[in-house]
Amino acid sequence: MNKPITRRRVLLTGAIATAAVAVSRVANAEGVKLALDDPQAVALGYVEDAAKVDTAKFPRYQAGQNCETCSLYQPGEGGWGGCSIFAGKQVAAAGWCNVFAPKA
Ligand code: SF4
What we know:
By secondary structure, the chain is an alpha+beta fold. The chain is built from two helices and four strands.
């Protein structure tokens, strides 16, 4: 026998569904921070602080460049955002890598 659908049950189900969608959106927006020892990050000289770029290895770097001013950066929250080079990962707004492409 089915339980009767009560107003409370409808509200509770709606609240759970809303919370699940909100959690899902946060997870997608945040992603995982790009590890500094990620092989692709190492190959491209990624750093979380552009001031720490090894300019001997990566002479393309110029003062003032960072992920936040890169056309491939997708702003997120808390100083982190997405990057189309490192799909599914978050890079630091203050970071940099050798693929840096200035915003137009
Ligand atoms: Fe940062 Fe741009 Fe390199 Fe992505 S491509 S890590 S946004 S500098």
